[in-house]
Amino acid sequence: MLPPSLLQRDPILLGLLKNKTNQVACVRYLPSTPLLRNTLEIATNTARLQDWISDRSRERDGQPFAIRLLGKNDIIYMSKPEHFKQVLRQQSSNFNKGPTIHEVYSDFMGEGVLLTNGDRWKYHRRVLTNLFSARALREHMAPVIQRNVQVLTEALYRVIDANELVDFYKLMHKFTFETFTEIGFGRKLGSLASPDTHPFEVAFDEAHRISGHRFTAPVWLWKLKRVLNVGTERRLRDAMAVIDKFLMRTIVGAMERHQHGDRSAKRDIVSIILDTMETSGQRITPGDIRDIVFAGMIAGRDTTADALSWLMHTLHNNPRVARKLRKEILAALPQFAESESYVPSIFHFTSVKLMVCCL
After folding, report:
1. Which residues contact 169 (CB under 8 A, 6 or more apart)?
2. How far is the C-alpha of 162 from the C-alpha of 157, rounded, in Å?
3. Alpha helices in the chain (DSSP H)
4. What's a Pfam family this protein contains (predicted)?
5. How far apart are alpha carbons 56 and 64 in whole angstroms?
């Protein structure tokens, strides 16, 4: 999902969500043919799907619309923040994650908050909400972010000195992946300062991409490939083996250290979960920890990278705003002009009102 700042201009695929009556109320369908429905139209616009969705949404003044696909569930598209608020917060109990999205993504996401419903969803959501409290952000996450921002800054200076082009979108994804991996699991990948990509990140991107492509592939085809362990499904299985080996080794190691009373100053979300469970007297399995932390990583990595990339894109297209923002930052944080290595805490930016508005 894209950041909330984009919701007013670009419609987002909500996913195969239906209310409990299994009907789509007050949502108009796009015109379609009797047999293929909207399948051919989607197929011919695959390369520009986001633009196509945006065009259809603007034609309808941002009102939700639905499409029918051959052999697939109907899909609802939304673009207005108030509609997302209704579905995701105010009426979330009426929009459970259905069996289709669970079947498509569970091999990758497990049984985390992004795919579950009911009590399990409430439990995972409560744990994640407590983890991302202001205190946890100050004590653990902010220092990790600051260190990785410094590494990112050095990488950008190297590009400038060499007069090279940089794929900023890819760089932002490396930055957020490195950051969320350290925040979640206490592991430093070191790929942000390297031209190479860590095998864990390669496997993550591969598994994420293949799982997403299941939506567009015939169900019988990808299920057959999964049974036969061939093609993309074999690559997905191989990628998940790399991911689970990395995650479970980290989690089991943290649990063993915790059982032996090791309470080092170095903190990560896995350690915080273990401390919380011990205090409350609840039991938790390595699989539960994996699903909780991995869900937070999936939810945060792409959304943050997309938001940062889009911010830089819009500032590039609006140099007047960029100059004004730079002036306000230097006025509020003059250390920027004094040291290239200065990295403020995110809490320092609360005084930079234009930055808050831009984000």
Report:
1. 305, 309
2. 9
3. 39-44, 49-59, 81-85, 99-109, 118-131, 134-136, 142-161, 168-185, 199-213, 219-228, 231-259, 269-280, 286-317, 319-332, 335-338, 353-358
4. p450
5. 10
Q: What ranges do the domains of the chain cover?
A: 26-79, 127-306, 318-358
pTM of the model: 0.82
Query: Which residue, chain included where needed, has tokens 């830089």?
Result: 312
User: How do residues 69-93 score in pLDDT, each as one tens digit?
Assistant: 887 888 889 999 999 888 888 887 7
Contact 147, 138 (CB under 8 A): no
Q: Could you identify the residue written with the tokens 């009911």?
A: 118
323, 320, 316, 328: which is closest to 355 by C-alpha? 328
Amino acid at the residue 211: S
**What is the distance between the alpha carbons of residues 139 and 267, in angstroms, rounded to a whole number?**
9
* 76 membership: H or E segment, kind and range: strand 75-78
Report angle CA 180, 183, 187 to the nearest 5 degrees: 90
Assess contact for 69 and 39: CB atoms under 8 A: yes
Among 86, 90, 70, smallest CA distance to 78 is for 86
Topology of 127-306 in CATH?
Answer: Cytochrome p450 (1.10.630)
End-to-end CA distance of the chain: 16
- Please write the tens of the pLDDT for every residue from 30-44: 999 988 999 999 989
- Total residues belonging to the chain: 359
Distance in angstroms (rounded) separating the CA atoms of residues 312 and 326: 13
The alpha carbon torsion through 274, 278, 282, 288 (nearest 10 deg) reads 10
SS3 69: strand
